[in-house]
């Protein structure tokens, strides 16, 4: 077939792409392929709800409070349950962990356990749901460390360097799934007419010339001197670079995705008012690290202001970290100014 027949030269579904990727790994058993496909299916189910959030009865809040002390949006709850239920019986995972739950989510004993563990934020940015602002699912996949049986905290608390795969699903003007298995970053757009994620952004690389910086500058008073100087730098105040435009949605997946495609830097620094003074708001294992893997695979970099996010050894499931992520020179500049000025 050719494009003259109004047929695309090649339709690449996420399954075909993952299978093609898998051919680079003869030792691959196909389990990871199926796991990524399960995630894509969860994304379709969640997308079918987020696109109707304003209409369906699920708009708005439950009366529940999650582990983060945040009021759980009904869509959060639905997304969390959807991901768990599509993965709890497949025999591909030894355990899961979710932003919405304090401890490990075990595989029900009637089902087999597998060789991977998955950690996920089911619906990041959910505070924006009622305002029709894009939200997203973020996931990390590791090989289990323990030999067999139910997954343990040891299997979960791994540095980003150990990631086998990571990615996100952005529920925005279109639904996109972006993932990496260490062979580059690839983006798929959901075609709702056929219900398939189709390859739309192969081999994503962060453009060398950045356009945006993304930070909640309303907090500038509460940032360290180094971060305040960095905020001047990215705006070109010292004249050393062309100022970047500010774009900040307040939804990590939306802000990260835009900067991945346009070039730029996102940062969420420590806020002196925080009780967790040394770590900021964002979570390491299912927000910062999976996006750091994507950023590095796309030619960028992610830091906590002093070291690569990928090198941080987690000590708890929901531990937080400051995050500077995007074009490598921009992130390294943040590290330089924080090193000099704190
Ligand atoms: P939540 O999931 O509670 O809505 O938090 C979203 C996160 C992240 O997506 C976003 O970058 C950040 O919180 C925005 O925080 P601020 O509103 O403090 O800027």
Brief summary of the model shown:
By secondary structure, the chain is of the alpha+beta class. The chain is 28% helix and 23% strand. It folds into 2 domains: 14-201, Fructose-1,6-Bisphosphatase, Chain A, domain 1; 212-341, D-Maltodextrin-Binding Protein, domain 2, CATH 3.40.190.
Structure commentary:
The mean pLDDT is 91. By secondary structure, the protein is an alpha+beta fold. The protein folds into two domains: 14-201, Fructose-1,6-Bisphosphatase, subunit A, domain 1 (Fructose-1,6-Bisphosphatase, Chain A, domain 1); 212-341, D-Maltodextrin-Binding Protein, domain 2 (3-Layer(aba) Sandwich). Helix content is 28%, strand content 23%. The longest helix is centred in the N-terminal third of the chain and has 20 residues, at 31-50. The chain contains eight helices and 15 strands. The protein has helices spanning 14-22, 31-50, 74-87, 153-156, 225-234, 252-262, 284-297, 328-341; strands spanning 61-65, 71-73, 93-98, 105-106, 116-124, 135-143, 165-171, 175-180, 185-191, 196-201, 212-214, 245-246, 264-268, 301-303, 323-326. α2 (31-50) runs antiparallel to α3 and α5 (225-234) runs antiparallel to α8. Bound molecules: 2,5-anhydro-1,6-di-O-phosphono-D-glucitol. The site of 2,5-anhydro-1,6-di-O-phosphono-D-glucitol (AHG) has 12 residues, from α6.
């Amino acid at each position: 077939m050719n494009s003259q027949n109004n047929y695309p030269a090649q339709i690449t579904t996420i399954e075909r792409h993952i299978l093609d990727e898998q051919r680079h790994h003869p030792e691959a058993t196909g389990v990871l392929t199926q796991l990524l496909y399960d995630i894509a299916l969860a994304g379709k189910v969640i997308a079918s709800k987020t696109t109707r959030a304003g209409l369906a009865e699920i708009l708005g809040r439950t009366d529940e409070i999650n582990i983060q002390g945040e009021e759980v949006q009904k869509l959060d709850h639905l997304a969390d349950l959807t991901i768990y239920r599509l993965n709890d019986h497949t025999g591909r995972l030894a355990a899961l962990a979710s932003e919405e739950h304090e401890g490990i989510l075990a595989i029900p004993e009637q089902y087999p356990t597998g060789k991977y563990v998955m950690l996920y934020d089911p619906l990041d940015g959910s505070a924006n749901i009622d305002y029709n602002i894009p939200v997203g699912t973020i996931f990390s996949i590791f090989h289990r460390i323990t030999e067999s049986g139910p997954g343990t905290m040891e299997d979960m608390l791994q540095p980003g360097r150990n990631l086998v795969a990571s990615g996100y699903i952005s529920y925005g003007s279109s639904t996109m799934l972006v993932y990496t298995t260490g062979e580059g970053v690839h983006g798929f757009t959901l075609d709702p007419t056929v219900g398939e994620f189709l390859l739309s952004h192969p081999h994503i690389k962060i453009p060398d010339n950045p356009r945006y910086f993304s930070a909640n500058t309303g907090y500038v008073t509460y940032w360290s001197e180094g971060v305040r100087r960095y905020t001047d730098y990215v705006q070109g105040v010292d004249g050393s670079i062309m100022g970047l435009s500010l774009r900040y949605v307040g939804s990590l997946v939306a802000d990260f995705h835009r900067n991945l495609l346009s070039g730029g830097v996102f940062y969420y620094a420590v806020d002196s008012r925080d009780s967790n003074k040394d770590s900021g708001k964002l979570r390491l294992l299912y927000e910062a690290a999976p996006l750091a893997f994507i950023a590095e695979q796309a030619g960028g970099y992610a830091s906590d202001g002093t070291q690569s996010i990928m090198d941080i050894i987690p000590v708890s499931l929901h531990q937080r970290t400051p995050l500077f992520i995007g074009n490598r020179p921009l992130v390294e500049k943040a590290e330089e100014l924080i090193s000099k000025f704190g």
